[in-house]
């Protein structure tokens, strides 16, 4: 598939797991189909929500092949290639090419601190290695290495670098990135912090990559379309519900337990996070179900 300009809602799909920690391919396929039925604009596999740094290479490959089969001819597939070093990232880029990804999504190298010029070198090496479109992903809470607006702008000059996903929550830098790259017709700035969805779209963001799209893909599409059509009251109504869901993500201390439980309530999988993370408790699951129903979500 030729990658269109990235806009709209692109869910960062989770990796459903069985209680033995094997990939639940049937649940993953079903969740992707559900997202597609809600008219999302692409699928992002192997991101933060997918628990990608925790997966074995075998788990990763099984999940990617399942998603690829559901995306063929239907949805652009973005594949995360996030690792601690450039050399390891290039191995994941090769894997993404082999499974038929439509684009790769890369963070800065993490664990060790790197300078902005070293982040530029990192993305230059990825560009030299692949013809696949590249998305820059800024998630400093996990990498420890923020990618500022000037660095994004420099990397965006490389051929084939098509978008920037920002999960920093730093709105002054986000706005500056939009301003610096606005004249780059091929380049999209995407918001990854779901509680900032409406304001980011009004500011000029091209789209959203929200974790809650695993919970409410249809409502996130509705939010995006409402902003684009000027129906701000409707957009803020959805945003209010998104904020309630955001608060629920920390009900038992860690967001992935809740993020994995929501698709379970929709009928996709067992809600099992990767080891050693705990499943959401029965009490937490009941609270989440009540919250989702209150927002009009139809549960399984």
Number of discrete helical segments? 12
Label the CATH architecture.
Answer: Alpha-Beta Barrel
Cα shape: globular
Main-sheet strand order equals 1-8-7-6-5-4-3-2
Taken together, the total number of domains comes to 1
Strand content: 5-15%
Largest sheet: 8 strands, parallel
Order of helices and strands: EHEHEHEHEHHEHEHEHHHH
Helix content: 40-55%
Structural class: alpha/beta
Indicate the CATH topology: TIM Barrel
CATH superfamily: Aldolase class I
Number of DSSP strands?
8
| Unreliable residue runs | none
Instruction: State the CATH class.
Output: Alpha Beta
Overall radius of gyration: 18 Å
Q: Note the gap between the termini.
A: 33 Å
InterPro entries: DapA-like, Schiff_base-form_aldolases_AS
Keywords: Lyase
Protein name: 4-hydroxy-tetrahydrodipicolinate synthase
Pfam family, one: DHDPS
Sum up the structure in keywords.
Schiff_base-form_aldolases_AS, 300 residues, 8-stranded parallel sheet, globular, 47% helix, 4-hydroxy-tetrahydrodipicolinate synthase, 8 strands
Describe the structure.
It is a single chain. The chain has 300 residues and is of the alpha/beta class. It has a single domain, classed as Alpha-Beta Barrel (TIM Barrel). 47% of the residues lie in helices and 10% in strands. The chain contains twelve helices and eight strands. It has helices spanning 25-37, 57-71, 86-99, 116-129, 140-143, 149-156, 171-181, 197-203, 217-228, 232-248, 255-266, 282-294; strands at 8-9, 43-45, 77-80, 103-106, 134-138, 161-166, 188-191, 207-208. An eight-stranded parallel beta sheet has the order 1-8-7-6-5-4-3-2.
